[in-house]
């Protein structure tokens, strides 16, 4: 810093000190050694014993290193501002907060997608005022998730691709993914958070729209299924009550068997109405009940479910079932086994040629004594009919399809796991 003569004389005469004056000094030497030196100088007057000013005293400090760092920081800050606030479409929407979640940055891209200018949001709380009042968030938990991500970033824990959906100033719905990172100063201390938004492309937004429509349709179907299951329960309770009254009357042996078959079918219906969780069905997660039951009761319940269709198609049902099987007590899930066998029998009845006129159930048991004294029973069920039987594409859907094209395929794969779980 240079002073004119009059200014220097004035300062000395009035004993005024010049403090923290930055002086840039030029060095001499070889070309590659020519570097500037920066000195911060304090100047004061020098006096004799009569208190007369006789000179000037300079006290200086070399601040070249600090000056270089500060200049770099200023340049970086300038570059940062030019990048952040560039209207270039490649610059993503960016906003920043201090350690108290107040808005410290709101770039041009944020102004564009929200409709709120930088001046309108600067200094406001990002949680509640900016996102919540200015930009209304979608969903009851969205504000909580946004607040947690912001505080995590301020605490040093970054968040990547958090779904953030909100309404802009004009009520337009905006879907984005937010990445939140910590902000640090020159000493490496965390002083806030930087947040970047990734806006979904038109193709992705269209895909998300289709997905929402499918989810809505699936939800409506689930409501219908839940309604049907609820409505089935009411008359089913009436049937169960009526059967309980009949059990207390004088019944013949045939009538007792009819009631037993009816009760077995009721139990199967009750089991099905509770299986409304389609995700569990697709994943093969079905809860099994294990209890002792007569295999003959299962066969009677299965046959009863196919009798009306057999009569309608004028088909005869043939049974090749050993007598000892009918009185065999086994252990497993009775309702599930009935469901499996009834599905397979009804499918065969539907596709059996009516001109030939028959469907046959063949049961062959194999007993095996195991080491702990128990007997392992392996029972093979065969359901056959003349002609070609089930169509190959239906068999493929029933046993090998990952997505079902037919109701028969859904029913078959729904209960296939029961055969694996119920080993007698």
Automatic annotation (TrEMBL):
Domain of life: Eukaryota
Keyword presence, NADP: no
Any single biological process term in GO: detection of visible light
Keywords: Chromophore, Photoreceptor protein, Receptor, Sensory transduction
PAS domain: residues covered: 79-131
Gene3D superfamilies with a match to the protein in the record: 1.10.287.130, Histidine kinase-like ATPase, C-terminal domain, PAS domain
Every Histidine kinase domain range: 227-424
GO molecular function: phosphorelay sensor kinase activity; photoreceptor activity
Matching InterPro entries: HATPase_C_sf, HATPase_dom, His_kinase_dom, HisK_dim/P_dom, PAS, PAS-like_dom_sf, PAS_fold, Phytochrome
Entry keyword Zinc: no
Role description: Regulatory photoreceptor which exists in two forms that are reversibly interconvertible by light: the Pr form that absorbs maximally in the red region of the spectrum and the Pfr form that absorbs maximally in the far-red region. Photoconversion of Pr to Pfr induces an array of morphogenic responses, whereas reconversion of Pfr to Pr cancels the induction of those responses. Pfr controls the expression of a number of nuclear genes including those encoding the small subunit of ribulose-bisphosphate carboxylase, chlorophyll A/B binding protein, protochlorophyllide reductase, rRNA, etc.
Family according to the record: Belongs to the phytochrome family.
Full protein name: Phytochrome
């Amino acid at each position: 810093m240079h002073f004119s003569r009059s200014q220097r004389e004035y300062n000395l005469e009035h004993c005024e000190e010049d403090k923290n004056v930055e002086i840039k000094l030029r060095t001499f030497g070889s070309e590659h050694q020519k570097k500037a030196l920066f000195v911060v100088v304090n100047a004061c007057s020098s006096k004799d014993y009569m208190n007369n000013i006789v000179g000037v005293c300079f006290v200086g400090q070399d601040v070249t290193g600090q000056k270089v760092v500060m200049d770099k920081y200023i340049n970086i800050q300038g570059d940062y501002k030019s990048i952040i606030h560039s209207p270039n479409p490649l610059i993503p929407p960016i906003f920043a907060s201090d350690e108290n979640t107040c808005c410290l940055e709101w770039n041009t891209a944020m102004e564009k997608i929200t409709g709120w200018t930088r001046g309108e949001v600067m200094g406001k709380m990002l949680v509640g005022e900016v996102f919540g009042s200015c930009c209304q968030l979608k969903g009851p938990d969205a504000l909580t998730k946004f607040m947690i991500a912001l505080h995590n970033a301020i605490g040093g824990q970054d968040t990547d691709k958090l779904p953030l959906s909100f309404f802009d100033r004009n009520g337009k719905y905006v879907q984005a993914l937010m990445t939140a990172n910590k902000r640090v100063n020159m000493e490496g201390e965390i002083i806030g958070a930087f947040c970047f938004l990734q806006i979904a492309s038109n193709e992705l937004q269209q895909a998300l729209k289709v997905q929402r429509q499918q989810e809505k349709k699936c939800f409506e179907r689930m409501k219908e299924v839940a309604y049907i299951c609820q409505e089935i329960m009411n008359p089913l309770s009436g049937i169960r009550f009526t059967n309980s009254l009949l059990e207390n009357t004088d019944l013949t042996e045939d009538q007792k068997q009819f009631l037993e078959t009816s009760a077995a079918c009721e139990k199967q219906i009750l089991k099905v109405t509770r299986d409304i969780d389609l995700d569990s069905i697709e994943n093969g997660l079905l809860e099994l009940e294990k209890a002792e039951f007569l295999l003959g009761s299962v066969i009677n319940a299965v046959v009863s479910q196919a009798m009306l269709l057999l009569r309608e198609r004028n088909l005869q049902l043939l049974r090749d079932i050993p007598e000892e099987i009918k009185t065999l007590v086994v252990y497993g899930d009775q309702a599930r086994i009935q469901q499996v066998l009834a599905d397979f029998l009804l499918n065969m009845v539907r596709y059996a040629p009516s001109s030939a006129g028959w469907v046959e159930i063949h049961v062959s048991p194999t007993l095996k004594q195991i080491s702990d004294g128990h007997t392992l029973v392996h029972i093979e069920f065969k359901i056959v009919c003349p002609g070609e039987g089930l169509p190959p594409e239906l068999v493929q859907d029933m046993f090998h399809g990952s997505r079902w094209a037919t109701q028969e395929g859904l029913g078959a794969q729904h209960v296939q796991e029961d055969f694996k779980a119920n080993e007698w």
